[in-house]
Write a structure and sequence with these properties.
single chain; mainly beta; 6-stranded mixed β-sheet; 4-stranded antiparallel β-sheet; 10 strands
Amino acid sequence: QVHFVESGGTSVHPGGSLSLSCSASGYIDNRYCTGWFRQAPGKEREGVALIYLNGGTPSYAKSVKGRFSLSLDEAKNTLYLQMDSLGPEDTAMYSCAAVRSGGYCSFSLPFDGWGQGTQVTVSS
């Protein structure tokens, strides 16, 4: 099984930037999809950014495309999310997860290994 621990969340002003980290442990190989999700109070969890470990390129939700950037440091077993031009709509608990796949990645897949999440709050 795989487990994640997220960090880096804090309170920022609108228009600011923030970088989140997600450290993975447990078994994971290059057939896994992994990514960032977020959930705001009273709302359903939504996918933010996703990458297939076997040489895939990141995919993003429309709401964050062009503002967020997902990167992976395989040596450190860590996933990152660089967030720019933050707005109040980005306020949420951000979490990481992964799912094994044969090459198909989608936010709707049954992701596992959820961490406790890291809170991002964008306000004045």
